[in-house]
Each structure stands twice: as C-alpha cells, then as structure tokens.
Amino acid sequence: MQTYIRSLLEHQTNASQETVNLLEIGKQSQFDMLHLHEPKQLSALTRECPTVFTLHNHSTYCPSGTKYFSTAQECCDRPMSYLGCTWGHLVEGCGSRRPQRILKNFQTSYQELVILKKTQIPIIAVSEYARQQLISQGISAKQVTTVHHGIKANVTETDPLTYSIHQEQRLLFAGRIIPEKGLVWLLRALAKTPPSTQLDIAGEGWFEPQVKKLAKDLKIENRITWHGWCDRKTLNRLYQQSFAVVFPSLWPEPAGLITLEAYARSRPVIASNVGGIPEYMIPNQTGLLVPPNQPDVLAEAITTLTTDLNRTTYLAEQGYIYLQKYFTLSLIHI
What we know:
CATH topology of the largest domain: Rossmann fold
Largest sheet: 6 strands, parallel
CATH class of the largest domain: Alpha Beta
Structural class: alpha/beta
C-alpha cells in the first residue's frame, strides 16, 4: 500500500521520494477515497476519509489463510473458531503447527474482523464464495459486495485456436508448484490420457522435486516440459501452442484469474469446482468444471478435448465472448 500510494502521488502531484506511508502518519484526510487491498492496513485507519476494502484472500476469516486441509486434501467448510482452527492447524494440516504462529494468526484475523465490524466500511469480495465466508463470521451482508476480477484483454497476444494447434495436443498449467495447486492430481490424470497428450508447466515452487519424482514413477516424464518461471512473452507463447488450460487447484481459490487469462487468449479451461473458481466459468460452455482430486474424471475431461476439435473450439470461442461481456476492466463497476 505504501508503494502504491507513493506512486500515485509521484504521478499526480510530483511528490518527492521522501513521501512515507500516509496511513501511519495521519494524513489520510488529503484523499477523497482510500482503497485498501492489504488487511494489515486496516489497523492504521483514522476514518479521516471514506474507505473501501477489497478482500483478495482468506486470511481475514481463516487464521491459516488456506481454508484447506492438506492432510485430507480437502477444503475446510468450518467457520473460524479457536477450537476448530487449532485442531485444523495441529491435526488436519491447514497451517503452521508452531504455537506462536498459530496464536499470531488468530490475533491477526480476529483483529481484522473486529475492525471491519466496528468501522462498517464497505467491503468488496472478489467472489461470492469469499463474501459468504465473511458473512458467516458476522459481517453484515449489506456491508459486503461481490465484484469479480476483471482483466485487460489484448486480442493481439494470442491467435485463436486452430486445427494445427489442436493436433499438437499440448496442455498448459500455469501457477506455483505447491501441493494445493493440484499438480499431483493432474499428473495422475495425465497418465490416464492418450500418450500423445503433452503438458507444459509454467511456474516454480518448493514442491517441484516431488512432482518430478511422481512423473518419473508414472513413466510420463517424457510428456512434460518444465519451463520454470516465465515472463509474459514466454507465457504468451505457451498459451499460443496449447489447446486448453488446466486449473486443478485443490484449495478453494478466492477467485479464478487463470480462467480469465485463458479466455483472453481464446483457450478453454478445465478447472476444479472449488472456492471462487466456478463463478468465473459457465460449465460446458466456457470450459469443463470437474470435482477436485479425482484423476479419472479429470483424465476424461482432458481426453474429451483432445479428441473433439469442434467442442474445444466452441469452448474457446465462448470463453472469449464471456470475458468480453463480463470480465474486461472497461465493464467492471461497483
């Protein structure tokens, strides 16, 4: 937030580099509106000007910030509570097991909720899923509005899906390589698809060695290309050569930005039915929505698109239309 405010001042008023965090030095009155994106900034509010807060993640109503049990590999549907969340941390693997970290996370989440309830500032949630989580913690339904993410679509970045691209049978995964992003599930599904199906993985993360070992054990390492972290030019190239994008998250993503990135490039999406992801899709029209952590079902969805050019093209076209109609920045309003 400090960097963001500083850049605004430099652009609009030629402020000097000595400008510091305006939230902390009590000069909020010089703004007509303050838009917060970081929950930690809530504690510095002075209410000297109207404020709105956009909720991008789970940390305000989930001490671990995950809403996901790594031990059982399933989403958490419990409201935040000392007993339930402590059990989740220690037994179900939803976050750190260190007592100091657990206590700090509890204090932070509860403090943020208390401030939001006390100040009653308007809250923007990036999905109805996130909005309902806030309401379940006692935030007034009238205080929270759902405004889905939007992106600036550039139609020149990637060409539409063609027969030759589809024939290459390249599937794209773009994201961090961590367990909750669902790569283990994806690889097990890939092993059940036709041998011609190839997977490009754009991203990096601490879980990469384990995933590579799984690929070797499944004897599909020759069907996977690891690209590591990719700049926008490289990522556009990977989108260009793919026939579909897979979004296999196991944890309840607050939103579904990968779906929008795929739509902008006229590529269909195969995604998990968790969190806010379904709110960015029309099943069987802009992509295929599948239950999480079921390799057979995911493999069937992938195979369906590898063998049916007409359906894949239809999903790609409808995804682009859906994006232009509901999710471009020029259309988003509160």
